[in-house]
């Protein structure tokens, strides 16, 4: 679908930070890992919750959150390849690994998490952990592959990161059944912890 804005600069000229949209972030013990969502709040629910729970106290967290009464997806969704909010870019630039959480339409597939990003090793490690936890993943999805170098998940020190595109039906289940969401959260945290240890 088409979105209203193709850059944060244009969006910020129309909407007010702190009212129409929020920017939340928190430093983690392992600041070289950033778990983030550029489409949090009411844009792609519950991406913010998932990203924040994955980050926990261990990893840095960032969320750009829509807070309008309606129309958040059209009005406040900046495409990942054009997401240039300054704090997000600053935090990503400090990170060795960036993991971005997104929501997608079902596209006739209500349960498969589409894996993306240029960091094949991290992407596949997270995908393997999700599979072991009982989730379905696609490491070569038909859309939203996150292979553009300008994608926010690829703006870290290494120039490559990972992203998860979670279908709408599964996201609704995560909201209704928090234990299902925590199953995903714990799987991703386990994978990130192993990646951090491997690169220590």
What coarse outline follows from CA principal-axis ratios?
globular
* CATH class call: Alpha Beta
Question: For the terminal residues, how far apart are their CA atoms?
Answer: 41 Å
Number of distinct beta strands = 7
**Helix residue percentage:** 25-40%
Organism: Rhizobium leguminosarum
Protein name: Replication protein
Q: What's the SSE blueprint?
A:
Layout: H1 8-12, E1 21-26, E2 30-41, H2 47-55, E3 59-66, H3 72-76, H4 86-94, E4 97-104, E5 112-116, H5 120-132, E6 136-138, E7 162-167, H6 168-176, H7 178-198
Parallel strand pairs: 2-3, 2-4, 4-7, 5-6
Antiparallel strand pairs: 1-3, 5-7
Helix pairs in contact: 2-7, 5-7, 6-7
Task: Describe this structure as you would to a colleague.
With about 200 residues, this protein is an alpha/beta fold. The protein has a single domain (about 10-200), classed as Aminopeptidase. It contains seven helices and seven strands. It has helices spanning about 10, 45-55, 70-75, 85-95, 120-130, 170-175, 180-200, and strands spanning about 20-25, 30-40, 60-65, 95-105, 110-115, 135-140, 160-165. A seven-stranded mixed beta sheet has the order 1-3-2-4-7-5-6, with helices on both faces. Helix 2 (about 45-55) crosses helix 7 (about 180-200), helix 5 packs across helix 7 and helix 6 (about 170-175) packs across helix 7 (about 180-200). The longest helix is centred in the last third of the chain and has 21 residues, at about 180-200. The protein is globular and about 45 Å long. The model has no long low-confidence stretch (mean pLDDT about 95).
């Amino acid at each position: 679908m088409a979105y209203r804005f193709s850059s944060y600069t244009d969006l910020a000229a129309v909407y007010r930070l702190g009212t129409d949209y929020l920017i939340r972030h928190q430093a983690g013990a392992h600041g070289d890992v950033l778990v983030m969502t550029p489409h949090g709040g009411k844009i792609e629910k519950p991406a913010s919750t998932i990203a924040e729970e994955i980050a926990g106290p261990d990893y840095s967290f960032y969320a750009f959150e829509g807070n309008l009464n309606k129309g958040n997806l059209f009005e406040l969704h900046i495409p990942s390849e054009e997401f240039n909010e300054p704090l997000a870019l600053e935090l990503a630039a400090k990170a060795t690994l960036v993991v971005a959480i997104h929501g997608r339409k079902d596209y006739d597939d209500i349960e498969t998490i589409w894996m993306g990003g240029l960091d094949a090793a991290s992407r596949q490690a997270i995908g393997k952990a999700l599979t072991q936890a009982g989730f379905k993943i696609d490491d070569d999805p038909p859309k939203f592959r996150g292979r553009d170098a300008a994608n926010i998940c690829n703006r870290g020190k290494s120039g490559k990161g990972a992203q998860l595109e979670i279908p709408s039906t599964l996201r609704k289940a995560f909201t209704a059944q928090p234990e299902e969401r925590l199953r995903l959260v714990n799987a991703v945290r386990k994978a990130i912890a192993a990646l951090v240890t491997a690169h220590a």
